[in-house]
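Sample 3 of the quickstart, ligand 21W:
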Amino acid sequence: MLSRIDVITLFPDWVEGLKSLGLTGKALASGQVELKTWNPRDFTSDVHRSVDDRPYGGGPGMVMRPEPLARAIEAASSAGSPARVACLSPQGRKLDQAGVLELVQQQRLILVCGRYEGIDQRVLDELIDDEWSIGDYVLSGGEPAAAVMIDAVVRQIPGVLGHERSAIEDSFADGLLDCPHFTRPENWRGHAVPEVLTSGDHGRISQWRRAQALHRTRRLRPDLWSERTLDSEDQDALAAWSQEFS
Ligand code: 21W
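Result:
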């Protein structure tokens, strides 16, 4: 189980800020999970403390210099037990909940955040175990992606969130979207809460919720839907749902 995360970043404030945010922040601030940042700029040896340089072959933008980055990664590695070294990069494997559950199995993670046009390929080849993306859109650097990954993995550590978590997340872990939620008042601006939810019939309520989750997933996320095989209980729930709305 994950107990320590080191982040290699030119913008440590981006990552340190996580310690003051929410329940995951509390776990990080209290040391339940250690979070430490390492700035490649502190591992430069030239007077200008330069961390980037022009790309060989020409072209726009700059590339992160290998030596300061490598020294920062090695400093983080040598401080403690062996770690999996993961780089946040647009070329990486797309992070999903299965990936989160793999990452949280590691005892230690070192997350390397790129900036500029990217990292010298030789550092990736020599020092990085795997690369992760958070989705197909352009960020300014790896830091916001690292923040997303850290939030997702830390909340999986037992004791970080309350008891409510496992039940709440069963649905996504199951590859389904969540059902809709309602709270008081029972009638809001002329819109009533679905009758079943106020019926007190827990069998009907859980069948309704399951059917809603299935129907929403089919309609909104055909990619998740095509991965599914429906068991007989799910078929019954969907059949009951179609009957009610036909
Ligand atoms: C974005 C660096 C784009 C370089 C095609 C060819 C880490 C990220 C990042 C960044 C480019 C993640 C180009 C989702 C992300 C990250 C910075 C390349 C020019 N395009 N997950 N040449 N999205 N992004 N730009 O951007 O470091 S994880």
